[in-house]
Every structure is written in structure tokens, then in C-alpha cells.
Automatic annotation (TrEMBL):
InterPro entries: 6-hairpin_glycosidase_sf, 6hp_glycosidase-like_sf. It comes from the Bacteria. Keywords: Hydrolase. Signal peptide: none annotated. It comes from Mariniphaga anaerophila. GO terms for biological process: carbohydrate metabolic process. GO terms for molecular function: hydrolase activity. The keyword Hydrolase applies. This is Glycosyl hydrolase 36 superfamily. Gene3D superfamilies: 1.50.10.10. The lineage of its organism: Bacteria, Pseudomonadati, Bacteroidota, Bacteroidia, Marinilabiliales.
Length: 428
């Protein structure tokens, strides 16, 4: 019996030594990585030139600002960061809704049905109504601003007749009053490809219309859960109201959207029918972006995270894509979206987006999958150096597309690099 105990003890010690050795090797790789310094420096270089999403966009978008405000905090003073946030609150709708983005009024061109506010005459706003993430994105951005700067006085700043704190709750109330489907207890939006903002039924596809097929998906609801976590931390006195909502939405995500057999989230629950052919099995599609945000929202166990990432890796290999930023697999077939950019493996329909791949890396680091995260990070940092920039998305052949200064991509990679370095430094 003593011999058996000794054998078990020795085996345990050996495993610990082996793990320590592996950690030390990984620590050295992280601290000597040839791409990390270049990528971080390049990221700082592009964020200090402005706040629009990238060189292909004139607007400051809240869903993008949410992913690079922490990086911007390294090069801008808090007053500048704060002012951008206040513009979104000044342009808040009369029902509490939040715009997607804003642009100087004299630069507003054709296309959008622009939104104007007496509280902010300098800018024109726009809102892609097929989305249900603008309100959640703003709450998350305010939270990151406070974390990065320590300035929680923004919460008491008056905008019109309401403080920012009141307006934040008002934005969440908008979702509960205007985007909440009571039967399922979840938020709804238009049918889009995962986190995308293009519906199938229109040549552009960013506005709800008479042809819209309303649907529930994991991305919108996971973003909402993260926002509620942030809101309750910023406004602990409001926890009693929002904790119950958070719990119910979490439970309903698992009940209605999680496919236990396939170990994945279903793409959509349809509320007025599907826009796709009856013989099309949409449940075969694995949404990478929504799954990543679900991990951030705490909806998956460690075993489920591992299974999800293994599936993502299989999808990347099957598609031929270069990185874990692949939006989904398989993509929707040709012609399923009227917008021509949504061809298979095009744009949001199976394009490879560092903007989300970097967030997947962050969640792997947070949940202890350091070695796997480091391996999956390499294709994304390598192509930044090869292309000398942060492109909006890539084809499955790793060809850069869209804006070459996409600040969201810079933000998520820079944050992941800092998380790797923090882990490595803590190994001493």
C-alpha cells in the first residue's frame, strides 16, 4: 500500500514538473515572440490617428470602439475618450435606443437614413436596425473606459435631463421593451450571419423592413449578458433589478439555443419563418463569433469551451482559412443573401476576421487554454507584419480585404498580446 502511495506521489510530482517545464518554455516563447512587439507598436500607431472604424469608414462605430478603447487609452487622455462616449448618449433615441455610429454632419453622404439630435448638432448618426448589439456595446465600452482610466465620474455626467448612469439603464430598458421576445425570454433581431449586420432579404440589408425574418441568436443575447454584468458592476445599487434578468436570459440561452447533442449553438430561432429554402439545414452551421461571446458571458463550461474550440479548429482546416477568425462553417450557399458581398466565404459569410479571432484568443487565455491560444494567435500576428496593417477581413486564401487600418482588429490583438505578457510575467 505504501509503495502504491509512493508511485502515485511520484507520478503527481513528475506531472507537475512536466507542466512547469512546459509553462517555462511557453513563457520564453511569449516574451521573445518576433511578431508581438511589431503588432503592438503598429496597433498604437493606427489608433492614435483617430476613432473611425478604419480607412474605409467615416463613422465612429460603437461596436468597434468597444474593441479598441482600451488601446486608445494608452495614447489619448481621458477627456477625448470620454467625449466620444458622450456623443452616443447625446444622440440616444427618445425610446432609449443607441445609434451604431456618428459622423460630422457636413460629411454625411447618401445611403443612410441619418439621425440628428438637438443635444449634439455637430454630428449625424446612423443605426443598422437589423442589429441588436448597439446598446450592449455602449455599456461594455463605458465599462472598459472606467476600468482603463479610473474615471467613474462619467456615470454622474448629465446629458440633457438624465445622467449617463440613468441613460445606460434606459438603453437596457429599450432592449427589454422593444427587442425582448417573451415566449423564449430572449432578445431578437433580424436574420443575419452570426454577429453580422446584413439581412438576406435586401441588396444592402441593414434595415428592418417588410421582408425581414425576425430571429433570435446567441450573439445578441451573449452581448446583452456581458453588458448586464458590466452594468451591475458599475451600478451595484441596481443589481437587484438586473440580476434576475441576467439569470433568466442565461438560462434561456442554454434552454433554447444550445444544442447539447452537437455541442454548439443553433444559428437561429425564427419568429416569422426562415428566409432560406425549406430543404436547407441551417443547424449544420457553426457560428464562431457568437460562440466566443457566449464564452465571455460565462455560458459554457470548461469542457464545452474545449469542445467548441476543437470544432472551430476543425472548421478552419476544412475551409482552408488561415486563422480562428473564420466567422462560420460552412458558409451560407451562393445566392442566399441578396447583398453580393455575402457570397460563400465573403465578408461576414465565412470571411476570416481578426476582429473576432482576437477575442477568441482572449477568452482562451482567460479560461486557462494558454498554449492553444498562443498557437492560434500566430497566423493573425504574422499577417499583420506581412501586410503591414490591420485589415478588416481576409479570404480563405488569406488575402486581405476591406479597411487596412481596421482599429477593432488592432485593439483585440493588442489586448491579447498584453494578456499573454501578463501571464508570462506571472510565471516567475
Amino acid at each position: 500500500m505504501k509503495n502504491l502511495f509512493l508511485l502515485i506521489l511520484i507520478a503527481g510530482i513528475s506531472a507537475c514538473v512536466s507542466r512547469t517545464d512546459e509553462n517555462e518554455e511557453l513563457r520564453k516563447q511569449i516574451l521573445s515572440n518576433e511578431y508581438f512587439p511589431f503588432v503592438k507598436e503598429k496597433a498604437l500607431e493606427i489608433v492614435q490617428t483617430g476613432f473611425n472604424a478604419g480607412d474605409g469608414y467615416g463613422e465612429v462605430w460603437i461596436r468597434d470602439y468597444n474593441t479598441f478603447i482600451e488601446l486608445s487609452a494608452e495614447v489619448f487622455n481621458l477627456e477625448v475618450l470620454r467625449e466620444n462616449l458622450l456623443v452616443f448618449f447625446r444622440m440616444q433615441g427618445n425610446d432609449g435606443n443607441i445609434i451604431d455610429g456618428f459622423i460630422p454632419a457636413d460629411k454625411a453622404g447618401s445611403g443612410y437614413d441619418y439621425i440628428f439630435s438637438d443635444l449634439e448638432p455637430r454630428y449625424a448618426g446612423h443605426k443598422n436596425t437589423v442589429e441588436t448589439d448597439q446598446e450592449s456595446s455602449l455599456i461594455q465600452t463605458v465599462y472598459k473606459y472606467v476600468q482603463a482610466t479610473g474615471d467613474n465620474s462619467i456615470l454622474e455626467k448629465r446629458v440633457g435631463d438624465k445622467t449617463v448612469a440613468v441613460r445606460m439603464e434606459w438603453a437596457m430598458d429599450f432592449l427589454m421593451e422593444h427587442r425582448f421576445q417573451k415566449e423564449y425570454g430572449l432578445l431578437w433581431g433580424a436574420t443575419t450571419a452570426d454577429w453580422g449586420d446584413v439581412q438576406p432579404e435586401h441588396d444592402w440589408g441593414v434595415y428592418l423592413n417588410e421582408h425581414t425574418h425576425y430571429a433570435i441568436d446567441i450573439y445578441d443575447n451573449a452581448m446583452f449578458l456581458v453588458a448586464l454584468d458590466n452594468l451591475m458592476e458599475l451600478l451595484p445599487e441596481k443589481k437587484g433589478k438586473w440580476q434576475q434578468v441576467h439569470r433568466q436570459v442565461s438560462e434561456n440561452c442554454r434552454k433554447h439555443l444550445w444544442d447539447e447533442t452537437r455541442q454548439k449553438f443553433i444559428p437561429h430561432i425564427y419568429l416569422n419563418g426562415s428566409p432560406f429554402p425549406e430543404d436547407f439545414n441551417e443547424d449544420e452551421i457553426f457560428y464562431h463569433g457568437g460562440t466566443t461571446i457566449a464564452i465571455e458571458a460565462g455560458l459554457l463550461s470548461k469542457d464545452e469551451i474545449k469542445a467548441s474550440v476543437e470544432k472551430m479548429k476543425e472548421n478552419v482546416k476544412a475551409s482552408g482559412a488561415a486563422s480562428i477568425g473564420l466567422t462560420m462553417y460552412p458558409p451560407y450557399p451562393e445566392g442566399f443573401f441578396k447583398n453580393e458581398i455575402m457570397y460563400p466565404y465573403g465578408y461576414q459569410n465565412g470571411g476570416d476576421w481578426t476582429w473576432f479571432g482576437g477575442r477568441t484568443i482572449q477568452q482562451l487565455i482567460k479560461n486557462g487554454f494558454i498554449e492553444e491560444a498562443y498557437e492560434l494567435m500566430q497566423p493573425m500576428v504574422k499577417r499583420v507584419k506581412e501586410n503591414d496593417g490591420f485589415y478588416e477581413w481576409y479570404t480563405v486564401n488569406n488575402e486581405p480585404k476591406g479597411s487596412g487600418t481596421f482599429r477593432g482588429s488592432a485593439g483585440v490583438l493588442a489586448k491579447a498580446i498584453e494578456m499573454f505578457r501578463e501571464w508570462a510575467q506571472n510565471q516567475n
